[in-house]
Amino acid sequence: MIEVVKFLPFLLLFLFSCASQHTTPKKRALAYTPCPISQDLRDLARRKKKLIGTAVHSRAFAENTRYRKALEDDWNLATPEYAMKMSFLEPEKEQFDFRESDAIARFAQKQQMVMRGHVLVWHRELPEWAEKESGDAEALRNTLKSYITTVVGHYRSEFPGLLRYWDVVNEAVDDTASLRRDSLWADIGNDYIELAFRWAHEADPAAKLFYNDYGIEEMNPKSDRVYRLVKKLLERGVPIHGVGFQMHLGEGLKHDFASMEKNLERFRKLRLRVHITELDVRLKVDEGEQPSPAQLKLQADLYARAAGLCLASPTCDVIGVWGLSDAYSYIPDLHDGYGAGHLYDEDMAAKPAYCALKKALTLTSHPR
Ligand code: XIL
Fold first, then answer.
1. What's the rounded mean pLDDT across residues 101-115?
2. Of 69, 205, 280, 316, which is the most buried if we count CB atoms within 10 A?
3. Active site residues
4. Is 139 helix (H, G, I), strand (E, B) or coil?
């Protein structure tokens, strides 16, 4: 009897672990090695004179305390992931709704973060009423001017100095390296890009204004087109201060970091800043499936190398990731067969990429 009592705790533990194995879902979260670097990302970044930014998902921010804690812990630049898109800010003509984006702004202010406004001119996430103005150059011109003036003006007066950067124009060059024809705003005429920058500058002369795009990280026809576009804007005296490399990387895609370095350098020569604005590394996983350790390592390496690119260049002063957690990811919706692209997994556990990013921020030289 005494023997049984002695072994009772072990017996219970055994029974419990059998039971819990039984009830645990098949695809369990992996246990990751804890990161030995205890400093915050933002402290590490500050020492390198960089800002470290993340997109903020309004719903996650409102409902998930672990997500919110992760935001508070590490970041000093916040970009609303969707709350500052036109369909959210001006859902009905001349009726602005700043509630969601103001909530993020109040939070950022309290946390002593700065913000990037995203995005003033984009061909997606438009309200229906604006789409109806398609083809009417004058109406669209008035709509865009009023939108930019109101939105930038609102943040300038309500949160002075907080919106340090604006993505003024997003993805205006298409995948064939031509100016996008399928954008509603192209109906204004080719000068809509120039006008947008001028209106944004008038509304907040202190803000730094960016052209932002994907697939322009390397030397390629699309980045050539963007280079020519921004060069021409500069020659015409348009207030543009930088270019955002979105940096959506992924497994099975080819990434040439030497080419990225060369590309960054040509924008530097134009005296433009380059920011990494939307870094993520998508993996080939089916829905609900966990990435393998090898996939997580590949992801960690790519996060570190992307950060290294920015760290190696004084022209690049922002490293920004797009989304924090796989639980709130846009990736599976946009890229078939891909997912798990962010620093935290579905349960808000920090993945190896998180530690790799910290490690990259501690290095003095950055291998390509
Ligand atoms: C995505 C957001 O992550 C989603 O939440 C939203 O529904 C659609 O847009 N390039 C951009 C971002 O500039 O604005 C996009 O964000 C991702 C691609």
1. 98
2. 280
3. 171, 278
4. helix
Give 159 Cα–ligand 1 centroid separation in angstroms.
Answer: 24
State in Å: Cα 304 to ligand 1 middle.
Answer: 22
Instruction: Give the mutation target among 330, 331, 333, 335 for probing the ligand 1 site: most ligand atoms within 8 A of CB.
Output: 330
- CA separation for the pair 43, 17 (Å, rounded): 40
Question: How many degrees, rounded to 5, is the angle at CA 93 between CA 323 and CA 115?
Answer: 30
Residue 31 pLDDT exceeds 90? no
State the pTM of this model. Answer: 0.92
Q: How far is the CA of 151 from the centre of ligand 1 (A)?
A: 19
What is the residue with the minimal CA distance to atom 13 of ligand 1?
170
Q: Looking at residue 288, what is its pLDDT? A: 78
The count of other CB atoms within 10 Å of the CB of residue 309 is: 25
Rounded Cα gap, residues 124 and 233, in angstroms: 23
Cα separation, 294 vs 305, in Å, equals 17
User: How would you classify the pairing of strands 273-284 and 338-339?
Assistant: antiparallel
> Is the pLDDT at 29 greater than 60, yes or no?
no
Give the model confidence (pLDDT) of 252-274 as tens digits: 999 999 999 999 999 999 999 99
Among the residue ranges 18-27, 35-44, 304-313, the one predicted with the least confidence is 18-27
* 3-class SS of residue 178: coil
